[in-house]
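## Example pair
The file below holds two records. Each record gives the amino-acid sequence first, followed by its structure token line.
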Amino acid sequence: SAPGRFADYFVICGLDTETGLEPDELSGENFEQTPLRRTFKSKVLARYPENVEWNPFDQDAVGMLCMPKGLAFKTQADSREPQFHSFIITREDGSRTFGFSLTFFEEVTSKQICSAMQTLYHMHNAEYDILHTPPTNDKESCSSTGDCNGTSVSRLQRFNSYDISRDTLYVSKCICLITPMSFMKACKKVLEQLHQAVTSPQPPPLPLESYIYNILYEVPLPPAGRSLKFSGVYGPIICQRPSTSELPLFDFPVKEVFELLGVENVVQLFTCALLEFQILLYSQ
């Protein structure tokens, strides 16, 4: 039986430098996109512990849900703010496991990966020039007017490009907690503080492994109706579990629903729920 720990797994997903750049088949064919706009296959790079009896690790599901859009590449010219999201894995028996992921960008240090990205750009630009080179009769008119569609689009394509001698390449990476209960705010703080410790010029008070060990083995689930306070890397983290007589745990800010959908859509959804309509939310 489960021992009632706060978290079952700590997972790291990202680029496997040994396998290199593999197209993400789940995202569909996107070779017409520039290489920096394509999606590549991510891998589960590490997980701690290796396995727990009460919650077998589903590598395919966790890897796909941690990085649903696959690997993303950017350069120093792009915004690289960390992004947080959550997910649920529902098993055949109806039991649920909750995941919380923080995706950030780190510099690519592998020369092979940088060279592969440069090669993809050479191939893409060569193919693009072949497809969009104007006919011989139109070359003179294009050069005289400077208004050739092929040229303007080609310049636009090359704007979001990568030059190994000029640009710094970054790739997305994800750290994730797999938990038996949906303590979203607490998990988000844990991951944000771990990421802050990795990117900070000053080392954390204790080795990072000690904080991960603590969250996996020493922090229990709070009993029903009680709150729990434990130490993060840079400050305390608090979570509260409702009692059996209260509404079930819902640790997500309602404000975000209004920001994403707007007041009118939220009111319409609430009306549909009260009228017991079937509701389908579709998103990219």
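Second record, same layout:
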Amino acid sequence: MQEPEEKKIALELLETEQAYVNRLHLLDQVFYAELMKEAKTGKTVPEEVVKMIFSNISSIYQFHAEFFLPELRKRMEDWNRNPRIGDVIQKLAPFLKMYGEYVKNFDKAVELITAWSEKSPPFQELIADIQKRKVCANLTLQHHMLEPVQRIPRYELLLKDYVRKLPPQSPDRGDAEKALEMIFMVAKHSNAAIAEMERLQNLWVVYQRLGLEDDIVDPSNELIKEGPIQKISTRNNSTSEKYLFLFNNMLLYCVPKVIQVGAEFQVHLRMDVEGMKVRELKDTEFPHTFLVSGKQRTLELQARSGDEMNAWIK
């Protein structure tokens, strides 16, 4: 008799989960454990670095090896009597939020492996030695570390397929649909965590370019637009090169530094966005000009083109 489609997908979930747990075992019990053991002798790399590379892989490994895989296996052994996996996946979904931390840390981890492989030959040798083992299947540590990053999207795909193939009257339909929704939310949570990390990293880079002025550094700020601009001086009818950073709450009017040591710009003026007015000026001598007036003062600025002016005004 032909196996029903939904059972095939459930079996694929179990098989890939078994392979995944083996991969997590390799990361946590082999790479992490052995690098940590060496780090404790103080010869290869600081313990802190090893911890930073592997993030919370131990919790992820324990959860899958001790809870999710055994639960899934029990379900599949009992399939003919009770064909369902939706409820088990509902139990799994909230724990997948643990991945947010691992995924956020991934790029940093790969950078650390590269940097310390150059700095510490014994560290590099130990990784190379583990990579030669049969269990590594000729793949690098970085390659194995990518697996948890890709696991949640994999659950989502398999579960989507499973729900699609379920007969309408299946006892698992309600649970499976709810589980899919939960997995979808977790995937979104993981993506949001990455987006937030990128936002903060980009913000930090901007603050460094501005010389880390303490009244400007605020993690809740959002950079909306930045770019060069000409400042019009009505006194002597000339323009000079300036640079603007527009945040959600303030406009920084800056001067590019000639000698770039540390900061790239010097903040000349900080204007509050609250109460600010912006309008286009029809100036025949200086095209693409607009006026920004705020509590602090009024600036007459010239963009390089009409489009650029409109982008700033917007």
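Notes on the second record: DSSP finds nine helices and seven strands in the chain. The CA atoms of residues 207 and 217 lie 6 Å apart.
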